[in-house]
Specification:
The complex is a heterodimer of chains A (278) and B (784).
Chain A (H helix, E strand, L loop, with lengths): L6 E3 L4 H10 L4 E3 L5 H6 L7 E4 L9 E4 L2 E5 L4 H6 L1 H6 L1 H8 L4 H6 L2 H7 L6 H7 L3 E6 L2 E6 H4 E3 L2 E2 L6 E7 L5 E10 L6 E10 L4 E6 L6 E2 L1 H7 L6 H8 L16 H18 L2
Chain B lengths: L15 H5 L15 E7 L5 E7 L1 H4 L4 E6 H4 L29 E2 L5 E7 L2 H10 L1 E6 L6 H4 L15 E9 L2 H6 L3 E12 L8 E7 L4 E6 L4 H12 L6 E4 L15 H13 L3 E4 L2 H7 L3 E12 L5 E11 L14 H4 L10 E9 L14 H19 L3 H8 L8 E2 L5 E2 L4 H12 L1 H13 L3 E10 L7 H7 L7 E7 L5 E5 L8 H13 L6 E5 L16 H27 L7 E4 L2 E4 L2 E7 H10 L12 E6 L8 E11 L4 E12 L6 H20 L31 E4 L17 H18 L13 H13 L1
Parallel strand pairs in B: 1-12, 10-11, 14-15, 20-21, 27-28
Antiparallel strand pairs in B: 1-5, 2-4, 2-6, 3-5, 7-15, 8-13, 9-10, 9-12, 13-14, 16-17, 18-26, 19-20, 19-25, 22-23, 23-24, 26-27
Classes of the chains: A alpha+beta (278), B alpha+beta (784).
């Protein structure tokens, strides 16, 4: 519970942060720290330096850009939950944020931090996938915007260079969202998702569904989506679609919940999520 | 007795102001100049020979004062003592070194310590200590450990069997042969990990000039720890001060003396500097004594109309790698003697095998032995109800000891003080709306839903204990308690108690008691505990004894104060003591209430001593040593109502009713808190908590990310009621409230879940009822 020695930097800007990352190849970005600091305290991670970007004001806040909602990467869960824009237009993000950790975690943890960490049991990757969000990052060679499905590559592995900083999460076509939700079966101790399902129904009849927790990295439930999209959300249709929730996916297991149990819960929660889209 | 209303009042806890504003002095808050800090190098193997320790690099690192191995300290610190030496059971107490010498026996066993100027430096250097191990075969399960050919932890403890303890009353074999009904069931009472808010820690400050050692220690029993520290360090007892005034919870885990604390004291003496060590939460999980971990084989004999004629338990308790301070007493005396519960069971037989394995030590954990006994008994009652077709309520009633049968001696020789078991059951049934619930259950079952109702009609043993009983059981101490009530010249009072509350609120409760007895206002009474330099002696807080035993000493000391004050008042009022009334702190002449003196007037006069009554000495102080004549036996009924979501296996507690009979209650709010917390803890065993080891002896649930201490959202609403059956054992007529919730709740929750699942043909499952486990059981039944 006592981390090894490290340097601490608090750059004023993203470009300064990138410069520090280039100068210190063993450095890590600190973007809230509720995942990083515990592993440092266990000495499982021993970065030479922490580059704290959590107070860079350019990276904070929620704004609208036409029909896109833009969330600064260093916006905390608490700030997100307090945002009027989110309350009015994307309350499903409040469902998701409310499921994250506890008050202290929500006060410190940031959306960009959660994305870049790519924890397989993290809540936000699932809902951001279902919303077909984009993730913008800046590196030494300039900025790029990737779809969330490209970005969440693998367990703890975002599509991100070591000297690249996530700056924005962009949720497009907000006016086309008819209903959206995030529901979760949490591990009672850690609060992390054993299964979390993000679900979106659009005005044009598409259903977008994603899963976290039960799989190595958050993923779309494309078999369910193609089964249900364009159809009535009748009980029978929902049931038939939810049965396909495990198709094409590998499931993870541990002492708390086996892969078989997680696969089962994925079906149950896919069904429950679809029911709430009615 | 004074007529104030302090006894029975829900006075707010006075200790909370300092605890909730960060002004308490927990061990880590104490600062001494020139303190050095300790870090412990621990074995990553559950069982290994230590072949070499190379500390040369660590010793050169910045800030490092010294590196010590077990061998370095063999002459400075004696082995960790075991203080419960069970007689007549071939007890073998293996050598338990504070730092392992030659061999490590569980993951986390200390191998070396580093002392440095700050904790970070100590941790860095600990990482640099190079230890070579030769791993050995590992055994973590107690049934496996006693089998021939199992890995042996010690050369001189064959089959890893530390003891085999037997207790019997009547003749079970006979009862079993003539029984109409025989039920057998194996129960696993899983291992639990205590989680006090404050981890263990010590600050040891040795003064080479005076030869004295001051120790701030996370202890539930500082005088016992002073005695043991004296024994292991060789520093005379009168030169050791242990201060445990503010301790952030214990639940039994701060009863034992541990190696870390001993080493810090030993090294403080060696270096002549204060040494501090605070356990990290990670260390807490692997080195602070765990609880429970029984495997119990139970046979029950009964008549066809549901009367139990006998019970036999053959059990295996997992003690971990060493015998912790009180460990041998927990699964034996505190378990076997309680196998009659509230029932008349003429024939009882218990065999307990105490087993050593490559795991963390186990010791007392809230309830200590009694939850294990209550759990298996209450589960057996439900199995008996099933077998006889009787309602679980009825089968219990048919076996209850009746109110007019007290004092009642059970087959295990304990004499229950008082009880009225039907009364508590009746009240609980009414509170829960039992008949309605059974109808609702039927309705829901027809809709394919799983509602269950679970009972626990428990009795437990509290107020430990008559010292003669302690001696008979092999506990290496007395179990009386002391109190000093000192009234100052101003009429305000300081009370010294040997009980050592660490969160239970006795600074409030005890002040209420003294105020009640003497009429001195509550706010004028100070309660001092936990400091061996101020308290004459005490055996500490555990076994729901603080108020039943420590409170009794306070009451008697207070009464002696009042008696002396009455003689002074009579003298001052030119009357005789027989003609003096005492009410609410005022002494007055019978028939002339205007002629009066307050206890404050008397306190001043007694201290000035200008005009002493004939034969009286100055001052107003009394010390009392109270040794109870018997234990106390709180009892009650808990009823839990659950619905199981068959789709996910999740259990939702819909209702929880607890009716406890604790005798009289001094502070109902504090007692409610004890009951609520206890229920939460017992419910957690049923639903959430379990320690898991892998085959190599690694603790898989070694952090709060994996081990589920219930959060607020996991705790149901509880309806708490009480009946009052007083005990003759102490002057307050109260029984103790610290452990009832934990003891009662686990089987109530489990019985409810099994009741819910009974349409599927499920008769028993072991705890904890995690959703996956329940789902799998349902799948299995539905598939078959």
């Amino acid at each position: 519970m006592y981390p090894a020695e490290f340097d601490y930097h608090r750059p004023e800007s993203v470009s300064d942060a990138i410069k520090l990352l280039q100068e210190n190849p063993e450095a890590k970005l600190l973007a809230g720290g509720h995942s990083l600091l515990p592993v440092m305290k266990l000495r499982l991670a021993q970065p030479s330096a922490l580059v704290d970007i959590s107070r860079i004001s350019d990276l904070k806040g929620v704004r609208e850009d036409g029909d896109t909602i833009v969330i600064g990467a260093m916006t905390t869960y608490s700030e997100l939950m307090g945002s009027d824009v989110i309350k009015q237009k994307l309350p499903c993000l409040i469902d998701a944020a409310d499921n994250v950790g506890d008050v202290q975690v929500r006060n410190m943890g940031t959306i960009g931090g959660a994305c870049a960490h790519c924890d397989p049991a993290s809540d936000f990757p699932a809902i951001l996938l279902a919303l077909e969000s984009e993730i913008k990052s800046v590196g030494p060679n300039g900025e790029r915007t990737q779809s969330s499905s490209e970005f969440f590559m693998d367990m703890f592995t975002p599509k991100l260079e070591p000297d690249e900083v996530v700056t924005e999460i962009r949720i497009p076509n907000v006016s086309n969202i008819a209903k959206a939700t995030y529901i979760k079966f949490a591990h009672p101790a850690s609060g992390y998702a054993i299964v979390g399902i993000g679900a979106v129904r659009t005005n044009d009849g598409n259903v977008q569904l994603s899963v976290t927790g039960s799989v190595p990295i958050a993923a779309r439930l494309s078999a369910v989506e193609s089964e249900i999209s364009g159809k009535d959300l009748s009980d029978d249709n929902i049931k038939a679609a939810a049965e396909k929730a495990t198709e094409g996916l590998d499931f993870v297991g541990d002492i708390h919940a086996s892969d078989e149990y997680r696969a089962h819960l994925t079906k149950v929660y896919a069904r429950r999520a679809l029911e709430s889209l009615k | 007795m004074a007529v104030t209303r302090m006894f029975g009042a829900s006075v707010k806890r006075r200790e909370d102001a300092r605890m909730m504003t960060g002004r308490a002095h927990y061990t880590d808050d104490v600062r001494r100049n020139h303190t050095v800090h300790m870090s412990v190098v621990r074995s990553p193997y559950a069982h290994a020979n230590i072949t070499n320790i190379d500390s040369s690099e660590a010793a050169q690192m910045p800030g490092v004062v010294g590196v010590f191995t077990g061998a370095d300290l063999v002459d400075d610190v004696a082995p960790v003592p075991c203080a419960w030496l069970l007689p007549d059971c071939n007890l073998k107490v293996p050598e338990y070194r504070a730092i392992a010498v030659d061999k490590a026996r569980f993951v986390g066993d200390p191998v070396a310590v580093v002392i440095a100027e700050d904790r970070y430096q100590a941790e860095d250097a600990a990482d640099a200590v190079k230890v070579s191990y030769e791993p050995l075969d590992v055994v973590t399960n107690q049934e496996a450990a006693v089998k021939d050919g199992a890995p042996q932890l010690y050369d001189d403890v064959p089959n890893n069997l530390a003891f085999q303890w037997k207790l019997s009353g009547g003749n079970f074999e006979e009862a079993n042969q003539s029984a109409d009904i025989r039920i057998s069931q194996r129960f696993v009472n899983q291992r639990l990990i205590p989680n006090a808010m404050e981890t263990r820690g010590v600050l040891a400050d040795y003064n080479p000039g005076s030869g004295s050692l001051e120790v701030w220690l996370t202890s539930q029993n500082p005088h016992i720890h002073r005695l043991l520290l004296s024994a292991v360090t060789g520093i005379p007892e009168m030169n050791i001060r242990v201060d445990s005034t503010d301790v952030g919870g214990g639940f039994g885990s701060k009863i034992p003396l541990y190696g870390g604390e001993m080493i810090a004291c030993g090294i403080a003496k060696k270096l002549g500097k204060p040494v501090k060590w605070m356990e990290s939460r990670r260390e807490n999980y692997v080195t602070t004594a765990h609880g429970r971990d029984h495997i119990d084989y139970v046979d029950l004999a009964a008549t066809s109309d549901g009367k139990i004629t006998g019970i036999r338990v053959e059990a295996y308790a997992n003690h971990g790698a060493y015998l912790s301070t009180a460990a041998p007493g927990v699964p034996t005396w505190l378990f076997g003697t309680m196998l009659s519960g509230p029932y008349k069971i003429p024939n009882i037989e218990c065999t307990m095998n105490g087993v050593l394995t490559n795991t963390t030590t186990t010791d007392a954990y809230r309830g200590a032995g009694r939850p294990e006994a209550t759990y298996l008994l209450e589960r057996m009652m439900d199995l008996l109800a099933k077998e006889t077709g009787l309602d679980p309520v009825e089968v219990r009633r048919r076996n209850f000891i009746q109110p007019d049968e007290f004092p009642y001696t059970v087959a295990t020789t304990l004499q229950y003080d008082s009880g009225n078991y039907d009364a508590a059951l009746d009240q609980a049934l009414e509170m829960v709306g039992y008949e309605e619930l059974r109808k609702k259950q039927e309705d829901l079952r027809s809709q394919g839903r799983y509602l269950g109702i679970g009972f626990s009609t428990y009795v437990e043993v509290c107020g430990l204990a008559p010292s003669s009983a302690a001696g008979m059981m092999g506990f290496q101490g007395g179990l009386w308690e002391s109190a000093t009530v000192r009234v100052h010249p101003s009429g305000k009072a300081t009370v010294l108690t040997g009980a050592s509350p660490h969160g239970q609120g006795e600074e409030t409760t005890f002040a209420q008691l003294v105020s009640h007895e003497t009429g001195i206002p509550f706010h004028d009474i100070e309660i001092v505990h936990g400091d061996t330099d101020r308290i004459p002696f005490g055996w500490g807080t555990y076994g729901s004894r603080s108020t039943a035993v420590g409170g009794s000493a306070i009451v008697y000391a207070s009464r002696n104060i009042v008696e002396k004050a009455k003689r002074f008042a009579a003298h001052m009022l030119e009357s005789s003591p027989e003609d003096i009334d005492f009410n609410d702190g005022v002494f007055s002449v019978k028939g002339s209430p205007e002629r009066s003196k307050t206890i404050q007037d008397v306190a001043l006069a007694a201290h000035l001593a200008w005009d002493l009554p004939e034969g009286e000495k100055p001052g107003l102080e009394d010390s009392y040593f109270f040794d109870p004549t018997n234990f106390t036996f709180p009892f009650g009924t808990h009823i839990c109502v659950v619905e199981v979501d068959a789709e996910t296996g999740t259990t939702e507690v819909q209702k929880y009713v607890a009716v406890d009979d604790l005798g009289n209650v001094i502070n109902p709010m504090i007692v409610d808190g004890q009951v609520h917390g206890g229920i939460a803890q017992g419910l957690a065993q049923a639903l959430y908590e379990y320690a898991a080891y892998d085959e190599g002896g690694q603790l898989l649930t070694g952090s709060m990310m994996d081990y589920c201490v219930p959060k607020f959202e996991h705790i149901p609403h509880m309806d708490v009621g009480r009946t009052v059956t007083t005990t003759p054992v102490n002057p307050m007529g109260l029984k103790g409230a610290g452990e009832t919730g934990t003891i009662a709740s686990t089987p109530a929750v489990v019985n409810a879940i099994i009741d819910a699942l009974s349409p599927l043909g499920i008769k028993h499952m072991d705890m904890p009822f995690t959703p996956q486990r329940v789902w799998e059981a349902i799948q299995e039944r539905k598939g078959s």
